Amino acid sequence: MAKTALITGILGQDGPYLAKFLLSKGYKVYGMIRRYSNPNFGNLDFLGITDKVEYVDGDMSDESSLYNIVKALRPLEVYNLAAQSFVGRSWDLAKITTEVNALGVLYLLNAIKAYSPMTKFYQASTSEMFGLGNTKGYQDENTTFHPRSPYGISKVYAFWTTVNFRESYGLFTCNGILFNHESPIRGIQFVTRKITDGVAKIKYGLANKLHLGNLDAKRDWGFAGDFVEATHLMLQQKNPDDYVVGTGENHSVREFVELAFKYGGIPNWKKYVVIDPRFKRPAEVPELLAKGDKARKVLGWKPKVSFDELVRMMVEADLKRYKISSKFKIQSSK
Q1: C-alpha to C-alpha distance for 204 and 250, rounded to whole angstroms
Q2: Which CATH architecture has domain 4-182+222-245?
Q3: Domain spans in the chain, listed from the N-terminal domain onward
Q4: What positions belong to coiled-coil segments (predicted)?
Q5: Could you read off the pLDDT of 41-53 as tens digits, one per residue?
Q6: Which of 90-99, 157-166, 285-294 has the highest mean pLDDT?
């Protein structure tokens, strides 16, 4: 009998990569989607797995729907990737961010405790929980949390809820404190994809400026396809635990911009980039850097895709998208 896994947030970035990985391992994968009138399966289509996942209706802010899903499926593993995950937007959507990211985790864990206590649970935590807790120049599992946004705060709540269900009820629950991870299917609102999409638009004459915020912020950026393998490994261990996952090197937004324009074949990036105060956070996190020794030692995990390769991959994917779009428009006008 195939192993079963439920992935919330299946339509986002990490969900499709994780689903593809689990399918390659022989899992039967269920993906939870909200009751959209027209759900966007574009990211699953990009990876060619849309018709290989079975979809179930649910909502992280609707406790009864989560109870019904867990009771019906009783999956071997649950990967909670659902979130309002855009940090900047969390200031304007603080209530929904809290309901989905924080209370939703409580609802889901209560459902597992009630109907499927043998289920192994993975919570997608984030480096944004650390915020200013960077006293040693890096962050690891012992670094103090000091979140700087409603998003980071909601994730701290979810982190400790996950820990408490493990310690109080003996459930197999893990937190993966993943540092920034990107891909060609990263949401367009995130700075990395905004940059590569902007480069492609400039390349094809669809734009002449790219508006950005703080170019000096530094992040530990890796490839989402690598990171989801670490999440799976966490649930294969004998004992549940929490792990920091990152590349161990950080780069500034400026470095990302320089590489993106280079791979887009566009010289003199400064000619196109505009620093726009609208895109600066109310409370900035200047630098995040993972010290992921525990994940490397216990899980045997390490990143495969370098920062340089990641930027190139993303730029090439966006160039291809706009090239195909431009050809279609030309053909349609004939």
Answers
A1: 30
A2: 3-Layer(aba) Sandwich (3.40)
A3: 4-182+222-245, 191-219+250-282+306-329
A4: none
A5: 999 999 999 999 9
A6: 157-166
User: For 26, which DSSP code?
Assistant: T
Query: Six-digit token pair at 45?
Result: 């289509």
**Region for 267 from its dihedrals, namely left if φ exceeds 0, alpha if ψ lies in -120 to 50, beta otherwise:** beta
The string of pLDDT tens digits covering residues 48-78 is: 999 999 999 999 999 999 999 999 999 999 9
pLDDT above 90: percentage of residues in the chain? 82
- Among residues 286, 279, 228, 277, which one has the least CA distance to residue 252? 286
Q: Report CA torsion sign: 293, 294, 295, 297.
A: positive
- What are the φ and ψ backbone dihedral angles of 189, each rounded to 5 degrees? -80, -15
Catalytic residues: 126, 128, 151
Q: Is the separation of the CB atoms in 185 and 50 below 8 Å?
A: no
Q: How many angstroms separate the CA atoms of 112 and 98, rounded?
A: 20
Distance CA 72, CA 328 (A): 44
Q: Decide: 215 and 284 in contact? Cβ < 8 Å.
A: no
Residue 280 has, within 13 A of its CA and on its CB side, a CA count of: 11
Q: Which residue has the higher pLDDT, 282 or 98?
A: 98
Question: Does the model's pTM come out above 0.70?
Answer: yes
Q: For 131-172, how does the pLDDT look when each residue is reduced to its tens digit (9 = 90+)?
A: 876 667 899 999 999 998 889 999 999 999 999 999 999 999
CATH topology of domain 191-219+250-282+306-329: UDP-galactose 4-epimerase; domain 1 (3.90.25)
Distance CA 30, CA 212 (A): 37
The average pLDDT across 70-89 equals 90
CA distance 58 to 172: 22
Comparing CA positions, the residue from 193, 218, 194, 204 lying closest to residue 276 is: 194
Residue type for 183, please?
A: S
Q: Are 177 and 126 in contact (CB under 8 A)?
A: yes
DSSP of 207-267, one letter per residue?
-S-EEES-TT-EE--EEHHHHHHHHHHHTTSSS--EEEE--S--EEHHHHHHHHHHHTT-S
Contacts of 271 (CB under 8 A, 6+ apart): none
